[in-house]
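thread: overnight batch results

M.L. [08:02]
morning all. the overnight job finished for the chain we discussed friday. pasting input first so we're all looking at the same thing
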Amino acid sequence: MNYFETAEKFANENFSNYDGWSNFNDPYNYADGGANQDIAASLPFVINISNSTTVDQSNVVFLNANKAGNSTAPAFGNNVAISITLDNGDVTYAEFLQDIKSSPFKVGMIYLQSSNTAQPFKSLTITHRESNGRIIQTPVSPRLDPMQQQAGVTVVKYQFPVNAFTAISTTILASATLTASLYPAEQIDVARSLTGQSVAKAYSRPNLSQLQIPNGNGLVG
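M.L. [08:03]
and the structure it wrote out:
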């Protein structure tokens, strides 16, 4: 399937501004981990974005791996007040950006967390650019899960592909840190073809919410 056709479909068709569920047919499209023990659980790419000043910083961009000048830590092309790090072992955020260029992935959900209870609910803008100049932008408005009691976290149930042209922008509030955990539903690894496997590696859905959505297989988390 053409990657950019898929990107456009996700950006324009599979989105609901309120809770991200586009229909009742399991829009995450995660693999069924119970049916195949070889399918790994989705482990997140955990990105910490901090604002060191007492002034809100708007239009803070993360991802955007192809952007010129977006390779210098810790701001990665943002205002010097911003620091972006990856909380995934000894893998740095700069290495993560480089890996996106050869291993694009599809996000199944985003877990947003901050000690500032307003921060996880600031709107996100997801931008897909293409080398032919076309730009697709999708606004995402995080909402509080009606089943949760924690004020400083939320789960964004919206699937979208991430390649080197994909960027996410938001406002980081004064002295706040936003932790954005991107849970992949699928990731491209061309080396898998050397062992006769599909280059697309699927992951099973993490159980992050009590919200139950009916589908043909009963209730899912």
